[in-house]
Design brief:
Layout lengths: L3 H11 L38 H13 L3 E5 L2 H15 L6 E7 L4 H10 L2 E5 L14 H10 L4 E7 L10 H10 L3 E5 L22 E4 L1 H4 L7 E5 L5 H14 L6 H15 L2 H21 L3 E2 L6 E5 L6 H10 L6 E2 L3 E5 L6 H11 L23 H6 L2 E5 L30 H9 L4 E5 L1
Parallel strand pairs: 2-3, 2-4, 4-5, 5-6
Antiparallel strand pairs: 1-7, 6-7, 8-9, 9-11, 10-11, 12-13
Bound molecules: pyridoxal-5'-phosphate (PLP).
The site of pyridoxal-5'-phosphate (PLP) has 14 residues, from helix 3.
């Protein structure tokens, strides 16, 4: 597969041009990567008006993902989420109303999009939850929610995989959305690689209409590189307007380094990646079995993730410290879980180090406790609240106040209380549980 952006950058750098253009480093190495970091010079195309090398590279990505259209973002899934919701609202199927039904474990980019686009949200709550990160949505719950609405929403929005690796039954949920005349949009930030499993488990292949993937999270792509995918069955207008949707929320100076990285990744994916991915999935499967035999409770998760439950009295954060001392850094840890993300770029030596650092677990487990999410009463719209004057107060003093900004630690950047909601005792308990010390509330 060709790599037109990367090739152009190499050629341009090799041509030894006197750079009387941005960026100000003029290609001199400070970090080391500057020689390949350019702007929209002659021949370099332009991300939001692409008809040259960037359009060719995006066409390669479109072919690889089997989508109607795949577009690059250099500002992560965060930019794609805003664009996706803009498309869902502006190109919504006839008969739908301009609001979104969303599973509550949204990334905060969703809340920002709700403020910018001023849409209402009907939340899907889990029947049972053991973490802020998880919000399993059953087909019955979705069916019941959609059936009870006066009109179908512009879209149903799910996060899958979630931060712990929980995966929704996209195929069934997509069918329910379509039967109700609406579309399914999926935050697949953690699942770009799912397309390359055999069979594919990528949301687009399971029936989603819109989907975003953070290429940088699970593929060898520089931070910020992401895809916005429009599915083959999505309304045609969504594909036509996708570029302008991304432009609405993006910088006018998108990073060529990140674009070149996405471009190179196309070749990586087209070569022996599926085989290497399958081998890594197998290796991780074996590692899970070893850890289980050594007394660890390993949670079900997407295939490239290792989610370990914390034993009683031994928080995930303490486990993360233990690993750090042995030269292993995890992706995420809270009281209940430790999350590690794996790709084919992890070496067998990485796996050995991890196993040695974890050792045997002799601390018993208690039954997983249920952690109800906070269903705060909505007093203001998300937009009204996020744009209103706010003050920061200690979390303990927030009871009864209206949430201003979705105060959350990042990762996982999943709001406990959403802007405009009255902070009740459940939210207070969750602030305490997740160590949130201050909250932005309306003045
Ligand atoms: C579930 C989820 N969605 C969206 C995002 C935002 O992705 P990005 O960092 O690519 O903007 C994240 C970031 O961690 C995430 O975990």
């Amino acid at each position: 597969m060709d790599t037109p952006i990367y090739d152009f950058l190499r050629r341009y750098n090799g041509a030894d041009m006197a750079r009387f253009h941005m960026p100000g480093h003029k290609g001199r190495p400070f970090l080391g990567c500057e020689p390949l970091d350019i702007t929209e010079v002659h021949g370099a195309d332009a991300l939001y008006e692409a008809d040259g090398i960037i359009a060719q590279s995006e066409a390669n990505a479109t072919a690889l993902f089997g989508s109607r259209r795949t577009l690059y973002s250099t500002e992560g899934s965060s930019q794609c989420i805003r664009a996706m919701l803009y498309l869902a609202l502006t190109c919504r199927p006839s008969g739908t109303a301009p609001f979104i039904v969303a599973a509550r474990n949204v990334h905060k980019a969703f809340v920002y999009a709700a403020a910018l686009l001023d849409f209402e949200v009907v939340w899907l709550w889990p029947e049972e939850s053991s973490s802020l990160c998880a919000c399993p949505v059953s087909p019955e719950n979705l069916e019941k929610t959609l059936a009870a609405l006066p009109a179908p929403p512009a879209a149903v929005y799910l996060t899958s995989p979630d931060y712990l690796g929980g995966m929704a039954d996209i195929a069934t949920l997509a069918k329910i959305c379509h039967a109700h005349g609406t579309v399914l949009a999926v935050d697949n930030a953690h699942g770009a690689y799912l397309r390359f499993l055999s069979p594919s488990r990528h949301p687009l292949d399971l029936g989603a209409d819109l989907c975003c993937d953070s290429a940088h999270k699970t593929l060898p792509v520089l931070t910020g590189g992401a895809y916005l995918h429009i599915g083959k069955c999505a309304p045609a207008a969504m594909a036509e307007r996708a570029k302008s949707a991304l432009a609405l929320f993006g910088s006018t100076s998108p990073s060529y380094l990140t674009m070149a990285s996405l471009d190179l990744c196309n070749r990586y994916l087209a070569e022996d990646y599926p085989t290497r991915l399958a081998e890594t999935v197998q290796r991780l499967f074996a590692l899970r079995e070893t850890l289980t035999a050594r007394g660890w409770r390993v949670e079900d998760s997407d295939p490239l993730r290792l989610t370990i439950a914390a034993p009683a009295g031994f928080p995930g954060t303490a486990l993360a410290d233990r690993l750090r001392q042995s030269g292993v850094e995890c992706e995420y840890a809270d009281r209940d879980f430790l999350v590690l993300m794996v790709t084919p770029e992890n070496t067998p030596a990485d796996f050995d180090r991890l196993l040695a650092a974890l050792g045997e677990n002799r601390t018993p487990y208690t039954l997983p406790m249920s952690l109800p999410l906070a269903q705060g009463k909505r007093a203001w719209s998300i937009r009204e609240a996020l744009f209103a004057p706010q003050e920061t107060v200690p979390a303990e003093k927030a009871l009864g106040r209206v949430c201003g900004a979705p105060t959350v630690a990042c990762p996982p950047a999943i709001p406990i209380a959403v802007s405009g909601e009255v902070i009740g005792p459940e939210a207070l308990a969750l602030f305490r549980y997740y160590g949130v010390e201050t909250v932005d509330v309306l003045k």
